[in-house]
From TrEMBL:
Keyword match Acyltransferase: no
Pfam families, sorted: Lectin_C
Membrane-spanning segments: 67-91
GO cellular component terms given for this protein: plasma membrane
Species this protein is from: Sus scrofa (Pig)
InterPro entries (alphabetical): C-type_lectin-like (IPR001304), C-type_lectin-like/link_sf (IPR016186), CD72 (IPR039689), CTDL_fold (IPR016187)
Name by which UniProt lists this protein: CD72 molecule
Single GO molecular function: transmembrane signaling receptor activity
Domain called C-type lectin: residue spans: 212-326
Length: 340
């Protein structure tokens, strides 16, 4: 068998664990050792034989118990210290957690208020957004209407431009026509100048008419009824002569009060002439409808004037007589006329 003191690894480990190296000997009871003394062990002796392993070493019961109790006490102390440290740490962490909880509650309350505020603001913004959308839709509709109006206006403008071009062309044509008409008018004026007799630019009469003050007289020698004579004067842009002044039945007063008397004496004829006075609706009236009260004959009929005596007489309107036409004097067609 191997020696009990052989140096095997197990023996060295146990010796290091117990704090000493011993040799195997018979155990002594614990009551042999005084209580105030710790048992002393002889110094370790180890004998190493080549090729011989040491058998397992077992500590003595008293030494191992003391070391075991010491380790257990140390362990309990460490556990107590650890428990105290853990308790203090727990209290510290608990306080920190409580403080953190209060901070979190305050933060949570603040965040709730901020969230409510944000929700309110978001709702307001949503309403504003809806209002903006409505306004945008209205603006879009208005823009579309304005675009339609603009398009219609553009089309109308194009039509107006086409009309303007057409009008310009028509105006040019009218201008050419006006120039041509002015040329023709000048030519006609030049042609008609010999057909007017003028005492001044404002008092002219056609050739063959007699100018007396501001009236022109024409004696038609063709015999016609009163109606036919009036129609003939109308065709000459005139009417049967009208006596606007007081007329006496005596010839010596006729020249003084009737301007047309010179027209009668100019012809030096003994014939009678129709004038523009006839009986209508119980009154003597001129061709313009004005009444004449200085002629006292009664009954239907028309009035003639004797060319020699200048006496007004009633005559049957169907009788055929020459006529005396009268028209107002007029300006010369050429305003620049200076041949009077």
């Amino acid at each position: 068998m191997p020696s009990p003191t052989s140096g095997t690894p197990s023996l060295r480990y146990l010796q290091k664990l117990c704090g000493t190296e011993t040799t195997m000997r018979a155990p002594s009871p614990l009551w042999d050792v005084p209580s105030h003394e710790s048992p002393t062990l002889p110094p370790p002796q180890s004998v190493n034989f080549p090729g011989v392993h040491e058998p397992p070493f077992h500590c003595l019961p008293a030494g191992c118990a003391r070391y075991f109790l010491l380790g257990l006490l140390l362990t309990c102390l460490l556990l107590g210290v650890a428990a105290i440290c853990l308790g203090m740490r727990y209290l510290q962490v608990s306080r920190q957690l409580q403080q953190m909880s209060r901070v979190l509650e305050a933060t949570n309350s603040t965040l709730r208020q901020q969230l409510r505020l944000k929700i309110t603001q978001l709702g307001q913004r949503e309403e504003d957004l809806q209002g903006s959308r409505k306004e945008l839709a209205q603006s879009k509709e208005t823009l579309q209407m304005e675009q339609k109006i603009c398009q219609t206006t553009r089309e109308e403008l194009q039509a107006c431009q086409l009309d303007r071009k057409t009008t310009d062309e028509a105006l040019k044509n009218k201008e050419v026509q006006r120039i041509n008409l002015e040329r023709r008018l000048r030519s006609m004026q030049d042609t008609l100048k010999p057909f007017f007799t003028c005492s001044s630019p404002d008092t002219c009469c056609p050739v063959g008419w007699i100018l007396n003050e501001r009236s022109c007289f024409y004696i038609s020698v063709d015999e016609r009824s009163w109606e036919e004579s009036q129609s003939h004067c109308k065709s000459l842009s005139s009417n049967l002569a009208k006596m606007t002044d007081i007329l006496y039945s005596y010839g010596r007063y006729f020249h003084a009060y009737y301007p047309g008397s010179k027209a009668l004496t100019h012809r030096n004829s003994l014939e009678s002439y129709w004038i523009g006075l006839r009986y209508q609706n119980n009154f003597w009236k001129w061709t313009d409808g004005t009444r004449y009260t200085a002629f006292f004959a009664r009954g239907p009929g028309c009035v003639k004037v004797e060319s020699k005596t200048h006496h007004m007489e009633k005559e049957d309107c169907h009788a055929s007589l020459p006529s005396l036409c009268e028209m107002a004097a007029f300006k010369h067609p050429d305003e620049d006329y200076a041949g009077y």
